[in-house]
Amino acid sequence: MLERVVRGEVPRKHHVAFRDAEGRLLHEECWTRAGFDGPYTILYHRRRPHTQRLAEARHGWEVPPATPPRRIAKRHYRTQDLAARGGPPLDARVPLLWNADVVVGLVTPSAEDPVYFTNGDADDLYFVAEGGGLLRSPLGDLRFAKDDYLYVPRGLKHRLVPDAGPQRWLSIECLGGAGIPRQWKNDAGQLRMDAPYCERDFRLPEFRGPTDDGLRDEVVKRNGAFHGFRSEDPPLDVVGWDGAVYPLAFPILNFQPRAGLVHLPPTWHGTFAARGALVCSFVPRVVDFGPDAIPCPYPHASVDVDELLFYVRGEFTSRRGVGPGSVSHHPAGTMHGPHPGAYEGSIGAKATSELAVMLDCYAPLSATAAALGVEDAGYQDSFIG
Ligand SMILES: [Fe+2]
Description:
7-stranded antiparallel β-sheet, 2 helices, about 0% helix
């Protein structure tokens, strides 16, 4: 997603004999995207990395079943009312809203993953609303904490090890991949000077060299199902790697917000681009400062997108009845805007303390039974009055 990096020992050229100090041949693992056309990373293992036997998959979450069409309306789901699922992250994910591009869910783990997990369907993007932990992979250890996004590329064999204490993570499974929005990169692939973040704002895994944590079991998700494998050799037996595909952590508060003379559209807040979706960060900021500016978002018909907003904390000037953990869903085709009084009440405001993650999704979102179980039935009518 960002620049090419190198960690540990790598040979002078791709695909040449590379040996350890005892003269034993090391084994490449080429991890590519978009076939062989996209970014890639090459790892060097002490043992052959592809010696898996088939095994039973004992872990995985319940993927959303097809749901019947439902009439469109403004929706509000109170994920703060969802009981913590507990268990390993691999079992603790509860999908809530989904389409063919993204599956948005809540992950509330209480234990570490007991197996390695490879998502063969999607890049996983998490937002850590509460808690934190460690992502362990052959590329190294990556710590993540409250207010971080955690990006896990498709095909990365990894485990999540949550810290002790409550955990609530928003999960965005990006079935067509995710990355930095094109408009924030220059021709060299570097983040532009006027992008809302720079390379230094992201954290990469800390490579620790080859090791063995004793685990050999892996679960692979592909085509919406979970498949078990058992390896002969430790997945962490990597002496070095280089490439441009790796997991990342990005603290949302490193996102540099903007304000203008008058209200700026959400595109200014774009943080990650996925197929069919844009992930935006709304962080505490000064608000629009022109004479007579109305900082509160104007009513708008989102003709092209379903808009999903996950409220993290702070004052939400445009909405009432929502709180940390709330997910609002405003479908394309019908207008939405501030709650009564919010529009005029925002005139003269100097700042907002809101913290939220928003998804603009081009395909219609469906709700799972878990989402329907925490729906606020009065939300549609709460805009009248
Ligand atoms: Fe909107």
